[in-house]
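2024-03-11 09:14:02 INFO worker-7 job=invfold-0412 stage=load source=structure_tokens
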């Protein structure tokens, strides 16, 4: 009985974690460049203490891995010449060891090209500073202002994207060495989130049903334990 309630509790805790993750995904379904998260699970058999170290056939569930899905979102056309989207794999390199796929860039008061959050965008010479004028960005990320080349946006990739850690607001951090990216830059576009709201909502409803089932099982085990305890007290 006790093992049964442990199994139910483990399932309820993981379902709750799933719901929190899916809520976060849905909340960012309209955030440019956002990459959704997913979970994978593993099961292991519980040992039967009375019979020795062998398994007793009942499975306990535990979290195996949380992974970010780096698949591309849909490219959306805009009218902003500082908006860029990456066609292919790769990330825009920013100051402070940060990287992003979110390309709604800005020009700050000092003339520096920055991310949506204000972090400076890196070029071949360091942070990119833009003079006033007409801005053109070609497919290699080369920036020209009034037909004069200013710099090239640093676009990088990583052999092990699973080691990238989310740093909030569609930003990532890693200590891995960057490699050349296989991506073309599209000026006047931004990449949408790769969250598919309808699919995410279906998964969320399934996780909610699982959570409610585990809750009922926990309640059942708790009531059964109370009855056994009461009956033993009467003997």
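2024-03-11 09:14:09 INFO worker-7 stage=emit residues=235
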């Amino acid at each position: 009985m006790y093992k049964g309630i442990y199994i139910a509790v483990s399932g309820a805790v993981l379902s709750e974690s799933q719901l929190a993750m899916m809520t976060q995904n849905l909340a960012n379904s309209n955030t440019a460049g956002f990459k959704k998260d997913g979970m994978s699970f593993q099961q292991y058999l519980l040992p039967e203490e009375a019979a020795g170290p062998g398994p007793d056939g009942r499975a306990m569930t535990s979290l195996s891995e949380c992974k970010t899905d780096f698949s591309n979102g849909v490219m959306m056309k805009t009218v902003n010449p500082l908006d860029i989207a990456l066609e292919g794999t790769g990330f825009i390199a920013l100051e402070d060891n940060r990287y992003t796929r979110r390309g709604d860039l800005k020009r700050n008061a000092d003339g520096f090209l920055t991310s949506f959050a204000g972090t400076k965008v890196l070029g071949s010479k360091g942070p990119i500073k833009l003079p006033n004028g007409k801005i053109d960005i070609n497919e290699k990320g080369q920036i020209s202002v009034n037909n004069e080349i200013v710099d090239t946006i640093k676009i990088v990739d990583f052999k092990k994207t699973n080691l990238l850690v989310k740093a909030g607001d569609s930003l990532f951090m890693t200590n891995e060495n960057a490699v050349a990216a296989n991506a073309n830059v599209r000026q006047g576009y931004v990449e949408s989130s790769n969250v598919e709201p309808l699919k995410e909502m279906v998964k969320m409803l399934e996780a909610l049903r699982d959570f409610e089932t585990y809750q009922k099982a926990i309640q059942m085990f708790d009531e059964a334990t109370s009855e056994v305890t009461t009956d033993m007290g009467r003997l």
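2024-03-11 09:14:09 INFO worker-7 stage=report msg="The chain has two domains: 2-70+195-234, 75-191."
2024-03-11 09:14:10 INFO worker-7 job finished
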